[in-house]
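Let us practice reading a record.
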Amino acid sequence: MPDILVAKIGGSTLGARDTTLEDVVALQRRGLRLVVVHGGGALISEWLKAHEVPTRFERGLRVTDERTLEVVVAVLAGLVNKGLVAALAAAGGRAVGLSGADGGLLKARLLDEKLGFVGEVAEVDTRPLLGLLDDGFVPVVAPVAVEWRGEAPTGQLLNINADTAAGAVAEALAARWLVFLTDVPGIRDEDGRTVTALSPARASALTEAGVVQGGMIPKVEACLGAAGSGCRSVIADGRRAGALIEAIEERTGTVVG
């Protein structure tokens, strides 16, 4: 069976100079099975501002009340998700957009009541993804989930950190690669130098020492979680042309694991 690649992309990696979507299509044509998990934080912030909804963050996570959740779901599962599917189709790819709420893909629980409707992934049902992959499509996943309590869904939608969602999907699929395309060259050490490879122990130590901070923390945590299933994780600069292809060939970024 062809190898699976899970790629997490965000708005900061999609611009005039990158080739992310072209890379996805090129790898699909090579026979790789790809799953794309996307963010959209900047666009969410724009829409919240336009609708005069205040926003704040705790520990790098957006506090999500009812009004904020409406915008999050509309932007992630609507504008961003369908825009990516359309762009992949225009580039010659075959993609289907869905959110973690579809088909029970992402089952989640509340992370912290102080954060509002923010969830953490409790379980990934891989069947919707595997079905699409078997049919030759690239699943494009928006990080929105349904809350579950025990064995039943409550019907409540939850906002999920996209990095965390990508890691959970990669782990559940036993993917060969997990690639985070971000807006920095990779992980930096104590001296500010980008490192090409990190063991799980070294990555944990840099995080505990506060060298890895902010939005890089959930990426590293996701890499460490996926490493347990044998996944090769890479954090790379998605603004570079060919970054996704170079990442799985270990010619760019930081390899964790």
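A brief commentary: The first strand starts at residue 4 and ends at 9.
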